[in-house]
Amino acid sequence: MALEKYKVCPACGEHNAPTLLECRKCETDLTGVKIVDATAVQPEPATPETPSESTRTEELFRVCDCGEMNPPQARKCQACGEDISDILPTKHFAPLTKRFAYTLESVDGSCSNTFEESVVILGREAMLADDLREKTYVSRQQARLTIVAGKVFIENLSKTNKTFINNATIEDGAPVALNDGDEIGLGGKVIDGVRQDQAAYLIFRCQP
What we know:
About 0% of the residues lie in helices and about 35% in strands.
């Protein structure tokens, strides 16, 4: 009895028919992949500390020529600053990182919220709505926080109100990586050392 033969995708581990030139699951090029039979296909079992790629979630990234994996909406590389707006977002397995939480706390210490979600929308009618409802300079959906490859990026969503990081304006369509201790200004900046009452000011805290 003849053994069934495969092309095993080097990216996702999918068993493909030997005639296929691309993986049917992730579309990886299989032209140089050897055809093997069932006895040779014995993938090592994944451990809880090291999950196999077949159990990990693929995410969209704009991958710069320097190798940096950027959020799909980024226009400039976060590592080298190159224009990547013409690079199409493609699916990749995110680098393995430990799960972590991050905290947003108001500058005056009146509120503190910890998140683990990979995407969080901030605004008067989104996350932190109870704390931001009276802040008229903050839009209903002001900014988006996204975890990408173990980093937290912030992007302005409002067309009428700006979002600031350490008093610098976030350009539309250009997510910015956050660092522990950064101050986020939603709808306002610090002018002559004074914060605007109707804007919101939060400190980003990352907890590995």
